[in-house]
Every structure is written in C-alpha cells, then in structure tokens.
Write a structure and sequence with these properties.
Length: 216
C-alpha cells in the first residue's frame, strides 16, 4: 500500500485555524459539521476568543482606493495584519480582532460586535469568491492570529473620510450599505427590536419614504 502524501503547510495552517475558531463554540463538533461543505458558514459567538469589526464595502473600497478585489484584498492584508472575511450578500467585511476591542472601540458608525452577537464565519478553507457565499479575503494564518485594532480603526476612519460625508449606513429596504441613508421610521422601544429603520435615496424615492426631521 502506498503511503498517503503529507499534508501541505497550508493545509496544516488551515486545520489549526479551524480548530481554534471552533473552540469559541460550546460544541466545536457542530462548527466543523457546518463547515463540511467548502463554503459552509458556522454561527460563532463574539467576545470569547475574538470579536469582529463590521466594515461596509464602500468604506473599505474608499480607504484602499480600488474596486479590483485582488488588489483590494492584498492591500487589506498589508493594512490590517490579520484575518478578514467578506460577506458578499451583505456587502461588508469582518475584521477579526481581540475580544477586548469592544470596550475600547470609538467609532459609532462602524460597529465592533459585542459578546451578545453570533457571527456567521465561513469555512477557513474558503479563500476565493464563490457566488454570494462568505469567504476569507485575508485568510486566517493560525490560532490567535488577529487584526491590529488600531490599524482597523485607522482604515475605517480613512474610508469614512474619503467616502465623502463619512456616513455609510445599512438600508433596511434594499438590505445593503449606501451613502445618504437617512432615518425614516422609529420602532417603538417597547417592541422586540427598538431603534429605527433607515432608507437610502433610491429606496426613499421608490417607496415614497420621508426622512424624519432630527433623525441624525
């Protein structure tokens, strides 16, 4: 019987990273099961071994000055020094940072996810775009390898500045980030959700929505 070929260094690295990521969950086996398919996603709790800063696509593209994904991701790796995955369906990136970052984060328009948040993390082996599935724009190199929070904040500030007014918000109507998004509806605080609903200029026109005065 011929011997099996030895795993590559990249395979070892990916396996170690996957094992470490899964340890954030009480039942790591369920995480690995969710990653059975190459582009599977597992719901992992923030604030245990890591958390994430959610970066809208327009902020990242403005900060790095390119729309070419290969160029963008190479620049992202050089700027943040750690793992970042992309959610094409939500038009956003997630930079993994140490769990304590939540307590020191200072940018209210760019969210650092708190410990109550479960994050849909793609299979560490998914490192190339595939339709609307999540993938690692900057692959995780191994256990404990995270982005520098200061570098993430600097990139977010630069992107907001270059994007114009610096305000890029989620539109609750077309479910994507956009410039010029304004508050159009307040949800009663006694409801299950509270807060408000925002709409971009195009959706306000299509759905005949009027911004609320003082919504900012």
């Amino acid at each position: 019987m011929s011997a099996r070929p030895a795993p590559t260094t990249a395979a070892f690295r990916t396996g170690a990273a996957a094992a470490w990521l899964a340890r954030a969950h009480r039942r790591p086996a369920e995480v690995h099961e969710a990653w059975t398919h190459p582009y599977g996603v597992a719901a992992l709790p923030c604030g245990v071994l890591y958390t994430a800063v959610r970066l809208p696509d327009p902020v990242v593209r403005a900060a790095l000055g390119t729309d070419d994904l290969d160029t963008l991701h190479a620049a992202l790796a050089a700027a943040l020094h750690g793992p970042v995955f992309r959610d094409p369906a939500g038009a956003r990136y997630y930079a993994l940072v140490p769990p304590g970052t939540t307590g020191t984060w200072r940018l209210p328009d760019v969210e650092c996810l708190g410990p109550e948040y479960y994050l849909g993390v793609p299979n560490p082996a998914a490192v190339r775009p595939s339709g609307m599935s999540g993938y690692w724009a900057v692959p995780i190199e191994g256990p404990g390898h995270l982005c520098d929070p200061v570098a993430v904040e600097e990139l977010a500030r630069l992107g907001r500045s270059r994007a114009g007014d610096g305000v890029v918000r989620w539109c609750n109507w077309h479910h994507g980030y956009a410039h010029g998004t304004e508050l159009v509806q307040i949800i009663e605080q006694g409801s299950a959700f509270g807060g408000g609903l925002y709409a971009c200029p195009d959706c306000r026109t299509v759905h005949h929505l009027t911004p609320l005065v003082g919504g900012e």
